[in-house]
Every structure is written in structure tokens, then in C-alpha cells.
Design brief:
single chain; mainly alpha; 0% strand
């Protein structure tokens, strides 16, 4: 029993060191990548960095296509049904149904479109990410007041996406078509 405890302690120390050093295998376990083809296609279609798109998906849903938030956001990119309905109309879709948001291809297409629009609107990635998370109305109000992001959870979200983006760019360059 003592040997098992010692072995487990050693494994924990090694794993902790690997995490703190940013080792690629550990990063790939902690930051999985799924739906690579969908991410690449919609990143290209909407002129987005594929690592950014993957990072938003990871931060929003951990690549869980069935994810639902307490606020009613659905799917990989955690879109609100009313936002998605508006995107569907603006992009020529008809017959939108909420269940469509559970379909990875549709969810990522709508989310990529929305992210591209936030980037175009604000011309700054951090501000666009804040708008994606907290809504453009909040971001516009903060900008009018000359203040930074006012919601701590939105500041954390932006930081988390930026960190994940660096990891996806480094650890998944080949899968995302970056190199």
C-alpha cells in the first residue's frame, strides 16, 4: 500500500510539473480539439484565426455540442436562440429551429459569423471577445463611459480565450491549418 501511495505521489508531482511547464501532451489533454474541419472551414469563410475560433469554442463549451447555459445559450459557441435566429435571417437562412443550435456545423457557422461581426465592429480582439461574452450593448456603454470591461467574469473570459488561443496555435497548428 505504501508503494502505491508513493507512486501516486510521484505521478502527481510529475503531472503538476508538466502542467506548470506547459508540456504539449498535457496541454492537448487539457485543451482538446474537436470538429477541426468545421473550425477550419468557418475560420476561412469568416476570415478568422482558426486558433481564436477553437479557443472561443473551448472556453464557451469545452467542445460539448450539447452544452446549455443557465442563461439559455446553446451548443459549441453558446449562442442564444434569439441571436442565432437573427444570424440565420441575416445570412439567408429560413426555417430556423432552436434544435439547429445542437448541430456543430450550424452552431459554429453562426458563432463564427457573429465573432467576425464583433471583430469588424470593434477592430480589437479583446473588445470583440468582451462583446461576444457580455453583449455589444454592455461594451458600447463601457466605451461611452471610457472604462474598461466592467464585469469580472467577462475580463476572465477574455483572458481565458486569449490563453487558449495561444495554446491552440502552438499545440494544434497542423490540425488547424496554421503551419
Amino acid at each position: 500500500m505504501r508503494r502505491i501511495v508513493t507512486a501516486l505521489a510521484a505521478i502527481a508531482i510529475i503531472a503538476s510539473s508538466a502542467v506548470s511547464l506547459g508540456c504539449a501532451p498535457v496541454d492537448r489533454l487539457r485543451y482538446p480539439l474537436r470538429y477541426e474541419q468545421i473550425v477550419r472551414i468557418h475560420a476561412k469563410n469568416y476570415d478568422l484565426d482558426p486558433a481564436l475560433l477553437a479557443a472561443v469554442i473551448y472556453t464557451e463549451s469545452r467542445f460539448n455540442a450539447r452544452a446549455e447555459s443557465s442563461a439559455g445559450a446553446i451548443g459549441l459557441m453558446q449562442l442564444l436562440p434569439e441571436t442565432a435566429r437573427g444570424i440565420a435571417v441575416r445570412t439567408g437562412g429560413d426555417g430556423f429551429a432552436v434544435k439547429d443550435l445542437y448541430v456543430p456545423e450550424i452552431n459554429v457557422r453562426y458563432g463564427a459569423w457573429y465573432l467576425r461581426n464583433m471583430l469588424d465592429r470593434y477592430s480589437d480582439e479583446r473588445t470583440a471577445l468582451a462583446a461576444y461574452h457580455a453583449g455589444p450593448g454592455n461594451v458600447d456603454r463601457w466605451r461611452d463611459q471610457g472604462v474598461e470591461i466592467q464585469f469580472p467574469e467577462t475580463r476572465d473570459y477574455v483572458d481565458d480565450v486569449e490563453k487558449a488561443k495561444r495554446i491552440y496555435a502552438d499545440r494544434y497548428a497542423k490540425e488547424l491549418g496554421l503551419g
